[in-house]
Amino acid sequence: MGAGPAALCIVAELVEQGLSVTALASHTPDQPWPNTYGIWAEELESLGMASLLGQRWINTVSYFGDGVGEQGLAPTQHHFDYGLFDQEALQRALLHRCGEMSWSVETAVQINVVGADTEVFCRSGNTYRARVVIDASGHRSRFIQRPDHGPVAEQAAYGLVARFSSPPVALGQFVLMDFRPDHLSENQREQPPSFLYAMDLGEGIFFVEETSLAYSPPLSWDELRERLQLRLSHRGVEVKEVIHEERCLFPMNLPLPDRSQPLLAFGGAASMVHPASGYMVGALLRRAPTLAKKLAMAMAVEPPLDSSALARKGWQELWSSELVQRHRLYQFGLRRLMTFDEARLRSFFATFFQLPREDWSGFLANTLPLHRLLMVMLRLFWISSWELRLGLMFGASSY
Ligand SMILES: Cc1cc2nc3c(=O)[nH]c(=O)nc-3n(C[C@H](O)[C@H](O)[C@H](O)COP(=O)(O)OP(=O)(O)OC[C@H]3O[C@@H](n4cnc5c(N)ncnc54)[C@H](O)[C@@H]3O)c2cc1C
Description:
By secondary structure, the protein is of the alpha+beta class. The protein is about 35% helix and about 25% strand. The strands form 5 sheets. A 7-stranded mixed beta sheet has the order 5-4-13-14-15-12-16. Strands 2-6-3 form a 3-stranded antiparallel beta sheet.
C-alpha cells in the first residue's frame, strides 16, 4: 500500500525475491513525489547508487556561532559530501525493478484479517486479498497500531526554491544547519529554535529552508516563514522570484509500531524516520532487501504461515532488538535536545561535529552497531562542557 519511496523500495525487493505482489496507492506510481530528498553521498556510495544523485556538494558547512564577530561567524566545515537525489531517476530506477506487476489506483479504507489472509477494502468498493499486507502509506497511516506515548513531536520547515538579489549562501555551497541567531529579537530567542538548511542549486537558483528540529506542538509555517524572511533581510538578501514553496511537517518520535499486529509496515508508517536527523531514504534502501528476503523465506514455509505469523516475521526483521535499542537511544537524545534553548543547541551541535567523522556520520545514518553508538554517545558526553552535560542528563528548559 502506497507509492512513495518506501513502497517502491520494498516492492522492488519483493519482486526481486520472485514473490507475487499487487500494489495499491492513491495515485499512479510514476506521479512525481512531492518532496526533495537529501542524503550524505557516502551513504549512497556504500549502496553502489551514487549515480542517483542529481546534485552533489563538496563544500558542506554549518554555523553554530552566535553570528557576532569573527568567531561567531565562522563556519564548521564538514569535509563530507552531501547530495540531493535525482528524484525522477530514483523513482524510475525503482519502478524499473518492480517490472510488470500490477499497480491499482485505490485508496484503502479498512484492513481486516480474514482466515489466514488479509483483506484490504478500498474507497472504490473493491477488495484485495493477500497473504500479507505491507502498509507503506506514510507517517500518518491510520491502520498501524502503536502505543500512545503522548503528543508526538514533529519537524516543521518552510522553504523556498528561488532567485535572490544576492546569493543567500556562498556559491557552490551546502549549509546543513545555520543556527546563527543574530537576526532574532530577545523574545524570539526564547522561542523554540530553528535553523537554516540551504544550498546553491546552480544557475542562480537557491533552496533556503527554515527548519525546526522537533517540537510538540510544531512550529507553525507562518512563524518559520517570518523567521526565514527576517534571516534573509538581516543578511541583505531579497527574494526576487519564487519557483517553488515547500511546507514540511512530519513526526520525528512516532512510537514504534505494535510488533504483534497482523499488518506489516515499511517507511514512515513503520516509524523508520531517524529520530535525530529526520532522514529515512538511506534506511529504506538499506533495509528493504533484508526484509524482502525474510518474507520470501517465511512465505515458502510449509504448512503455509498465516498473515499474523508472516507479519510477525517481518516485524522481527524490521525492528530487531538491536534496532529497537538504538531507536530508544536516539529518542532519548531527541527528547533532551527538544528542551534546549538556542544557545545550548548551538553548543550541542558544535560539540557533536567535533566527533570523528565516522562517528557523527554513522550516528546520523544509523549505521553504527549498538555498542559503537553507545561509545559515540559517551564520547560526546565526555567532550561536552559541563553545562551541556547537565542538559544531556536532566534536560534544560521546556517548550
Ligand atoms: C517535505 C519533506 C522533506 C523530507 N526530506 C527528506 C530528506 O531530505 N531525506 C530523507 O531521507 N527524508 C526526508 N523526509 C522524510 C521521509 O523520507 C519522507 O517523509 C518520505 O516521503 C516518507 O516515505 P513513505 O514512502 O513512507 O511515505 P510517503 O512518501 O508519504 O508516501 C505515502 C504513499 O502512500 C499513499 N497512500 C497514503 N494513504 C493511502 C491509502 N489509504 N491507500 C493507498 N495509498 C495511500 C500516498 O499516496 C503515497 O504514495 C522528508 C519528509 C518531508 C515531509
